[in-house]
Amino acid sequence: MRISVRFTAAVHTLLCIDYFEDSFKVTSDFIAGSTGVNAVIIRKILLQLQKANLVTTAAGTGGSHLAKEPEDITLLDIYNAVKDKEDEIFNFHPSPNGKCPVGNNIHRVLDPCLNTAQGALEAELGKTTLADLLKKLPK
What single string gives the DSSP state of each residue in the chain? Predict the structure, then answer.
């Protein structure tokens, strides 16, 4: 049970864009060099971030730019932009036995706890902005 590597790679990607865009053309190959993630995966992440209106990307080697100010991008925004259904923290085994007293009631007894935990994660991610992380990087 882990959040996909796409989340941390997406955060890294956005940090690279803001940190380097005044000095370099920040392309998927450039970001791949910093993240250690294949450029093809970075392009997929950039596409997801673009669909979420977090980045703009020029075709070819035009580079990427933030579509919002770093203060206006939270870790929750990034998490939501790149997560898939499989990336939920808690996924249920697909077929609990409805004839079993545990299997028949497992969602009723466990879902509230899991939903609370998921909500706590999302609330915490919503407290940190890209700007907060940029302040921690060397100038």
Answer: ----HHHHHHHHHHHHHHHHTTTS---HHHHHHHH-S-HHHHHHHHHHHHHTTSEEEETTTTEEEESS-GGG-BHHHHHHHH--GGG-S----S---TTSHHHHHHHHHHHHHHHHHHHHHHHHHTT-BHHHHHTTS--
Q: Where are the domains of the chain?
A: 5-89+129-134
Determine contact, residues 130/76, Cβ cutoff 8 Å.
no
pLDDT digits (tens, 9 = 90+) for 103-117: 999 989 998 999 899
CATH code that applies to domain 5-89+129-134: 1.10.10.10
3-class state of residue 56 by DSSP: strand
The model's pTM: 0.87
